Amino acid sequence: MGKIRKAVIPAAGLGTRLLPATKSVPKEMMPIVDKPAIQLIVEECVEAGIELVVLITGRYKGSISDHFDVSYEVEDVLERKAKGELLEKVSHLSSMVDVVSIRQHRPLGLGHAVGCARPIVGDDEPFAVLLPDDLILGERSATHELVEVHQETGTGVLALVEVPPEKVNLYGMIAGERMDNRRVRCTDMVEKPAVGTAPSNMGIAGRYVLPGSVFSYIEETPRGVGGEIQLTDALLRVMREEGMHGKLLEGMRYDTGDAGGLVRANIAYALERPELADDLRAFMRRFV
Ligand code: G1P
């Protein structure tokens, strides 16, 4: 089975749930400890062996592309001040992986955003999609987990999480047959079903490995829930034609697109850092 070489990161959303912080700063640039969330997503791509990252951006998102570019001013200052360790942190970013960006000119939905990557990804190879609101912290990265299942099955693979019944209307929900503890063969999917109507408790988390053929299905997908061109609707067609699998993730998912999730992600990622963890634990004990 071929290697997954390319990843698409849709980053054109407005981030209204995090206003006013996101009035002039893209939500993808919100810090998780000392890295913008989008950097953790790109690092996940690198860890999974991705060679080219395609960012789908919109207006006011220039700082994201800047972040993955060389910053001569910052690097020059750090070099003159002999701050080697910081210099390394700043400069290795631009050499991690090739990052290109494409603008989504109109906010027509997630399916449409992924479709914008077609000229760069092409229809002939599978690729990964990572939604930057979803940070997944585990022993292995979520994309790595999906690539592994793709290599076994040859089909598209969706990251899955168990969703409480009152929250199914926030997710793409699937039906499927468990192959083992964590792997699932998908048999149906629906975007944001009304509470009480979901086909199971398995929801799509923001990681996918998709066949290149998805682009032609996206093109034919009419507007769905919320008046948007939904990725899930195109994936249902891929599933029917070519099959689709899911993997219940081993890692823990944080939705950083909302304030509570952003704070939780910051705590979880800080606790992973030996130089911060002890102090933070002692601090938190005062509140709980
Ligand atoms: C998107 C997808 C949905 C998926 C979710 C995961 O929805 O459309 O299928 O379950 O991401 O975070 P959004 O959260 O962008 O509304």
Q: Could you characterize what this model shows?
A:
The protein is of the alpha/beta class. 36% of the residues lie in helices and 24% in strands. The protein is built from 11 helices and 13 strands. It has helices at 37-47, 62-67, 72-80, 84-96, 110-115, 118-121, 142-153, 214-220, 231-242, 259-271, 274-285; strands at residues 6-10, 31-32, 35-36, 52-57, 98-103, 127-130, 134-137, 156-162, 172-178, 183-191, 202-210, 244-248, 252-255. Helix 3 (72-80) packs antiparallel against helix 4 (84-96) and helix 8 packs across helix 9 (231-242). It is globular and about 60 Å long. It starts with 5 loop residues before the first strand and ends with a helix. The structure holds 1-O-phosphono-alpha-D-glucopyranose (G1P). Residues 110, 131, 133-134, 171-172, 191, 203-206, 230-232 line the site of 1-O-phosphono-alpha-D-glucopyranose.
| Helix content range | 25-40%
The pLDDT mean sits at 93
What is the number of helices? Answer: 11
How does the helix and strand content classify structurally?
Answer: alpha/beta
Q: Please provide the count of β strands.
A: 13
Helix/strand layout:
Blueprint: E1 6-10, E2 31-32, E3 35-36, H1 37-47, E4 52-57, H2 62-67, H3 72-80, H4 84-96, E5 98-103, H5 110-115, H6 118-121, E6 127-130, E7 134-137, H7 142-153, E8 156-162, E9 172-178, E10 183-191, E11 202-210, H8 214-220, H9 231-242, E12 244-248, E13 252-255, H10 259-271, H11 274-285
Parallel strand pairs: 1-4, 1-6, 4-5, 8-12
Antiparallel strand pairs: 2-3, 6-11, 7-13, 8-11, 9-10, 9-11, 10-12
The structure holds 1-O-phosphono-alpha-D-glucopyranose.
